[in-house]
Design brief:
With 293 residues, chain A is mainly alpha-helical. Helices cover 73% and strands 3% of the residues of chain A. In chain A, helix 1 packs parallel to helix 5 (142-164) and helix 1 runs antiparallel to helix 8. Chain B is α/β, with parallel strands linked by helices and 256 residues long. Classes of the chains: A mainly alpha (293), B alpha/beta (256).
């Protein structure tokens, strides 16, 4: 293959994988900023979304364009409920307790999924499956392009939401000074639950976008390992950092896999993470988030 | 006429510590009331209890004819009672404008926002120059102005100010108190002010209470309070030191 073609495809594949990592990392960041809880069930939310999407499309026969928003909505409800019912009572306890709790939620979701759908992998049809778009001499897969485009749109929407909407700014204020947010008449508890809902819907988007390349499988939750690296790389709790960190790790993996050593693909992202943390211990975008005492 | 705020026999605990031991006070609509007291007298606890940040163990709090004791702070705020907390507590990474916007969260009237923000800038012109700057980067005085302006954005009927002079230069304190006086005159918002700076507080207030170790020990118009020996002694510092040391004990006893 022509080296330029290879390069272009690597970039697109890397960006597509990176977008998924970035979206999951963004889910971490949202919840972490709002409640200082690291949600280790983020990858499992993505996995549940993929299964829910499969059910709606392959079993219920809904068109993709309907199944997508319905799944996102279902996951939003799940995220809202998780905060309200499970996480809320444990807030204010030591950090260790909340970590164990979210890991427990993750295991519970894996268990429920394997009991409900069984362990076998499956896939569902999307408008992008097995299609390609020629771009000059290069042929790019529609699935990868759809992931990149959807992530770009989602990031823009989130940016606008946090910049201009009442609820978006209220979410930020509740995470910056909870007591003051109460004093403004902001219903902080409801706002926090909505942050969980938002975080779960972002995971749902990632899961539905990823499913056509990765198969709908319980092992989808493992994406959390890459996403966690992406979140730390970008600076934990930073929203732009999450996306940038995800893209970097996605690209590095692809490049290392092809140009250096196929076997090193899996660890390349972590090597970059370690190297960056040695120079910038707070991650790329973590500088300004220092706490005031 | 019934008062805008009626606090009756309120007791509040800070963990095991009985910080407020049965306090009663009134704030009439549109008036300025000061609560004086030393460190640890329970002033902040009193305001936090009224604002719903802390729950009273006993007693009733009636605001605008409705009981509010034990309600959540956001609920109390939506009823028209805004607390400007001690230490400002602005949202550090939000801009001045976004901080003000959050002050109006309970009403969320997008169309009125520019006019209301302009009204706050009219009281605090310094904030207008800082409109797009993150609140965490403002000076202490500017943050205090922002905190008061943010509370005004809710269009409250009663403003609770917790030590607005804390950590500010005398000049800035004078400026901020003058603005609070003007706000009270022009908008008729009631003000319940808690202060260590007794001189400033009594100059501003119509009525004053003295709080000592969780109890109200004196209540009178601020004109009369300013004339009392005990007040001149302990809060205004207008006697010479020799007498002050000797009399401190006896006077405190007579208050109970």
């Amino acid at each position: 293959m022509d080296p330029w073609t290879t390069l272009a495809q690597l970039i697109v594949n890397g960006l597509a994988a990176g977008c998924v990592y970035g979206l999951v990392a963004l889910g971490f960041a949202l919840v972490y900023k709002a409640t200082e809880v690291v949600n280790f069930a983020q990858g499992d939310l993505l996995m549940v979304a993929a299964f829910a999407g499969w059910t709606l499309i392959e079993v219920a026969g809904l068109p993709y364009a309907v199944a997508f928003p319905v799944t996102v909505l279902l996951l939003a409800v799940l995220g809202f409920g998780l905060d309200r019912v499970v996480v809320r009572p444990i807030l204010g306890r030591p950090q260790f307790a909340t970590i164990m709790l979210t890991i427990g939620i993750a295991f519970a979701m894996r268990g429920v999924v394997s009991m409900t759908w069984g362990p076998q992998a499956r896939t569902f049809e999307t408008p992008f499956s097995r299609k390609n778009t020629p771009f000059f001499d290069v042929v790019l897969s529609d699935v990868s392009l759809s992931i990149i485009a959807a992530t770009a749109v989602l990031s823009a929407l989130l940016f606008a939401f946090f910049r201009w909407s009442w609820l978006g700014i209220a979410m930020q204020s509740a995470s910056q000074n909870q007591m003051a947010a109460y004093l403004m008449g902001i219903p902080v508890k409801a706002v926090t639950s909505l942050t969980w809902a938002l975080s779960a819907s972002v995971a749902a988007c990632a899961g539905l976008l990823l499913a056509p390349i990765a198969l709908v499988d319980i092992a989808l939750w493992l994406v959390i390992l890459k996403a966690f690296a992406a979140a730390v790389l970008g600076g934990f709790g930073s929203i732009p950092g999450a996306i940038v960190g995800g893209l970097l790790i996605g690209l590095v993996e692809q490049f290392v896999g092809v140009y250096l050593l196929q076997e090193a693909k899996g660890i390349a992202g972590y090597v970059v993470l370690l190297a960056v943390l040695l120079v910038w211990p707070r991650g790329l975008f973590g500088g300004g988030e220092r706490k005031r005492v | 006429m019934t008062a805008l705020l009626e606090v009756r026999n309120v007791e509040t605990y800070y963990g095991p510590i009985n910080a407020i031991k049965g306090v009663s006070l009134d704030v009439a609509d549109g008036s300025v009331v000061a609560v004086l007291g030393a460190n640890g007298a329970g002033k902040s606890t009193l305001l936090k209890t009224v604002a719903g940040v802390m729950n009273p163990f006993k007693g009733t709090i009636v605001f605008d004819g409705r009981p509010i004791a034990g309600l959540d702070a956001d609920d109390v705020a939506r009823r028209g009672l805004s607390l400007v907390p001690e230490g400002r507590q602005v949202f550090p990474f939000l801009s001045v404008r976004e901080n003000l916007m959050m002050g109006a969260f309970a009403r969320r009237r997008e169309a009125d926002l520019p006019r209301e923000i302009a009204a706050v800038f009219d009281y605090f012109p310094r904030l207008r120059e800082r409109e797009r700057i993150a609140a965490g980067l403002l000076s202490g005085g500017e943050q205090q102005m922002l905190a008061i302006g943010r509370a005004l954005m809710a269009k409250p009927r009663l403003l609770l100010l917790d030590e607005p002079s804390l950590g500010l230069s005398p000049l800035l304190v004078a400026e901020i108190f003058a603005i609070v006086a003007r706000i009270n005159r022009e908008t008729r918002v009631g003000v319940l002010l808690v202060e260590q700076n007794a001189q400033r507080a009594l100059d501003l207030a119509h009525f004053g209470y003295v709080l000592e170790v969780g109890r109200i020990v004196m209540a009178d118009t601020s004109e009369r309070l300013k004339q009392k020996d005990d007040i001149r002694d302990f809060y205004l510092g207008q006697r010479d030191a020799g007498v002050r040391d000797r009399q401190r004990w006896r006077r405190r006893k007579t208050w109970r």
